[in-house]
Amino acid sequence: MTTRTLLPNSIPDGYNALLRLEKYIGTTSLDPIHKELIKIRASQINGCAFCINMHTTDALQYGETAQRIFLLNAWRESDLFTDAERALLALTEEVTLIQNHVSDETYANAAQHFDEKYLGEIIMMIITINAWNRVAITTGLRA
To answer: Does the predicted model carry a pTM greater than 0.90?
Structure first.
């Protein structure tokens, strides 16, 4: 597949709006490892090779271990993730697979681990990476 339309060229205002959302995410109190776990897991679910490649590289630079990245798609079966990370990953999966909705149980579990502001930032991070995944997949960006 070749790269399709380049959104920064064809619709710069729309693309820049998404960039502003990404810039906002950069100002939040989200832990860098939490951000990258969200980005990688959503990108795995969405099959976005471009984003998986980018965010696994970023995660390693932030100090994430290769072993945890290798096991991220099987986080439920691994003891390498904290309870808070498990709550974050469950929420990431349910928001990414939104056709199944976000269960009250998953939301309540996340709310036990994170205060309201941090939880809101997590939700915005999940929404943002899903938007970027869809941009990359639809426009044919390659890893």
So the answer is: yes
